[in-house]
Specification:
Blueprint (H helix, E strand, L loop, with lengths): L1 E6 L6 E6 L12 E11 L2 E4 L3 E4 L2 H13 L7 E6 H12 L14 E3 L10
Parallel strand pairs: 4-7
Antiparallel strand pairs: 1-2, 3-4, 3-5, 3-6
Bound molecules: zinc ion (ZN).
């Protein structure tokens, strides 16, 4: 997940936002994925999971397996992912763009469905 990591030491203590892998709990730097689940129970609303983060490779596969168990395809869920670099570009673009004032489209209302279990994997 995107988390706040506390740092102490010189020159001062800091609170540092960071991508933390939901599989191994280590900081993700450079190559990694943002992973989430979505479904459309009806056409007027969209449901999403929270955003999860993983290193590419074994961590990514482990988080996707955990996601599939907690947001099952049989219940209408599907998983999506973005590379962190792409995710940051989309996030930065949307930070300055008002969805409410978008003349070219409407944004579907959505709710975040929290998981029943922790994503922290052994
Ligand atoms: Zn990892």
């Amino acid at each position: 997940m995107i988390e706040i990591v506390a740092r102490n030491g010189s020159p001062e203590a800091m609170l540092c936002p960071a991508f933390i892998c939901d599989a191994c709990r280590k900081q993700v730097m450079e190559a990694g994925n943002v992973i989430y689940a979505v479904r459309y129970p009806d056409q007027s609303e969209r449901e999403t999971s929270p955003l999860f983060v993983a290193h590419k490779g074994a961590c990514d596969m482990a988080v996707q397996q955990w996601l599939a168990a907690n947001y099952p395809v049989a219940d209408g869920w599907s998983d999506l992912w973005d590379e962190i670099d792409d995710f940051l570009a989309y996030l930065g673009g949307n930070f300055k763009r008002s969805f409410a004032e978008d003349a070219d489209g409407q944004y579907v209302p959505h709710v975040v469905v929290m998981p029943a279990t922790s994503p922290k994997l052994p």
